[in-house]
Write a structure and sequence with these properties.
This protein is an alpha+beta fold and about 375 residues long. It contains nine helices and 20 strands. The chain binds flavin-adenine dinucleotide.
Length: about 375
C-alpha cells in the first residue's frame, strides 16, 4: 500500500513511522522542516487527565508510548506531576474540578483531589495560598517537543518511509493524487496532518472542514535549579495560564486569542502584554525568578465540539487535525489511530470527521479551560 502523508509535525511523523512499520510504502511531505509548525512551538506539557472514556484511552496510550520512546535519540520524557486548580472564590471552576476528578478516576486515570497544605509540602517552590480547589495527576511528564518529532522522523526513515522536507503538497480534488511544484504522484491513500493548514488544504481539494486556527503564546525564563526540582506542571484555571519546569528554568503559557488566525499570516513573536502579565503572575506564584529567555506565539486548531477530526473523509483520503491545544501530548496515540484508519480499521469512531458538514459556525474555546 502506497501512502502519502502531508505534514511533518508530531502527528505526521508518528503516523509515518506506524504506517511504515505496518509495511506501507510511505512518502511524507513537509513544506518546511520537521517540527517547523506548531510542534516546534509547543510547551511539551504531557498528561492523560481526561474524563471522556475515548480521551482517557488516547491519553493513556500516548503517555505509554512517550515512556517507551524515552531515552532514544535526544528525546526524554521527564516524569513531572500536573496540578490544576481554581482559586478561592472561583466557585464555578472549583465545582468543575470537583466533578471532573471522579469522572477521570472512573476512566482509570491516576488523579486525585488535593489541598493547599498537601501541595505546600509536596511542591514547596510554589505559592499555593490562594488555591481553593485543586487536583493532581500523576501519569504525566514534560519534554522538548521537537526532540520527539526528530526521533520519530528518524524512526520512520529507518522503517523505510521517505521524508521529503521543503516540499509543499496539494491534494487532488477528485483523486488520491498529490501534486507538488515538481510532480504529480498517485497513492492508495493520503493522510492530511497539516496542522493549522489542514482546513485550507482540504478546501482546495473540495472538502470543507470546520477547523479554526487560533494563536497562543508562551515564554521561558530563568529559575533556580534547586527550586526547579520542586516545581510541578501547574494550570491556574482561574487566571488561565500554565507553567512547567524547563531546561531554561521554567516555561509559562497562555495568551490565547479566541479569534480565527490566517495560517500563513500571523504574528510569530509574543505580545508585550502577554509577557508582562505572565511575569506578574509568575512573580505572585513563584516569588523570585530570572529574566525572560524566549517568548513566542504559535497556532492551535479548534473544532465545533472540541474533539478532533480523525478518520476517513472520502475514499482514500484521511484527516488528523483539530487538537484544541492538546495535539502534542496525544500525538503518539492519535497518529497511531490515524495509521490504523488508513489500513482499514476505525479505532476512534467518536472522532469521525464526517460528523460535521464543514460549514458550522462556532466560537473558539481555549482547550485547557475548565468549565
Ligand atoms: C505555544 C504553544 C504551546 C503548546 N503547548 C502544548 C502542550 O504543552 N501540549 C500539547 O499537547 N499541545 C500543545 N500545543 C499544541 C501542539 O503544538 C499541536 O497540537 C501539535 O503540535 C499539532 O501537531 P501536528 O503534527 O498536528 O501539527 P504541526 O506540528 O503544525 O505540523 C503540521 C505540519 O504540516 C506542514 N504543512 C502544512 N501544509 C503543508 C503542505 N501543503 N505541504 C506540506 N507540508 C505542509 C507544516 O509545515 C507543519 O510542519 C501548543 C501549541 C502552541 C503554539
Amino acid at each position: 500500500m502506497k501512502v502519502a502523508i502531508v505534514g511533518g509535525g508530531a502527528v505526521g511523523v508518528t503516523a509515518a513511522y506506524d504506517l511504515a512499520e505496518r509495511g506501507a510504502e510511505v512518502v511524507l511531505y513537509e513544506k518546511g522542516e520537521i517540527a517547523g509548525g506548531s510542534t516546534g512551538r509547543a510547551a511539551g506539557v504531557l498528561y492523560d487527565a481526561f474524563a471522556a472514556p475515548e480521551d482517557a484511552r488516547v491519553g493513556d496510550r500516548a503517555i505509554e508510548r512517550f515512556r517507551e520512546f524515552s531515552g532514544e535519540g535526544d528525546f526524554e520524557f521527564r516524569e513531572t506531576p500536573y496540578v490544576w486548580f481554581a482559586r478561592e472564590g472561583d466557585e464555578k471552576r472549583g465545582r468543575a474540578i470537583r466533578e471532573q476528578v471522579p469522572r477521570m478516576q472512573d476512566a482509570g486515570r491516576d488523579v486525585s483531589l488535593t489541598d493547599p497544605a498537601e501541595l505546600r509540602e509536596r511542591f514547596p517552590a510554589v505559592n499555593w495560598d490562594d488555591v481553593g480547589v485543586a487536583a493532581v495527576a500523576e501519569n504525566t511528564g514534560c519534554t522538548i517537543p521537537a526532540t520527539y518529532a526528530d526521533l520519530l522522523a528518524a524512526k520512520a526513515s529507518d522503517a523505510g518511509a521517505e521524508l521529503r522536507t521543503g516540499v509543499e503538497a496539494r491534494v487532488d480534488a477528485e483523486d488520491t493524487r498529490v501534486e507538488t511544484d515538481a510532480a504529480t504522484e498517485s497513492f492508495d491513500a493520503i493522510l492530511v496532518a497539516a496542522g493549522a493548514h489542514t482546513k485550507r488544504l482540504l478546501a482546495e481539494a473540495g472538502i470543507p472542514v470546520p477547523l479554526k486556527p487560533y494563536r497562543v503564546q508562551a515564554l521561558t525564563a530563568g529559575f533556580d535549579a534547586d527550586r526547579r526540582e520542586a516545581l510541578p506542571m501547574a494550570y491556574d484555571a482561574t487566571a488561565g495560564y500554565y507553567l512547567r519546569p524547563h531546561p531554561d528554568g521554567l516555561l509559562a503559557g497562555d495568551g490565547t486569542e479566541e479569534v480565527e488566525s490566517d495560517p500563513d499570516d500571523w504574528e510569530r513573536d509574543a505580545d508585550r502584554d502577554f509577557c508582562e502579565v505572565t511575569r506578574e503572575r509568575l512573580g505572585h506564584r513563584l516569588g523570585e525568578f530570572g529574566a525572560t529567555r524566549e517568548a513566542w506565539a504559535g497556532l492551535c486548531v479548534a473544532t465545533p465540539d472540541r474533539d478532533p477530526l480523525l478518520g476517513r473523509l472520502r475514499e482514500g483520503l484521511f484527516v488528523a487535525a483539530g487538537w484544541q491545544g492538546h495535539g502534542f501530548m496525544r500525538a503518539p496515540a492519535l497518529a497511531e489511530a490515524a495509521a490504523e484508519c488508513v489500513v482499514g480499521e476505525n479505532p476512534l469512531p467518536e472522532f469521525d470527521p464526517t460528523r460535521f458538514e464543514g460549514d458550522e459556525e462556532f466560537d473558539i474555546v481555549e482547550g485547557m479551560a475548565v468549565e
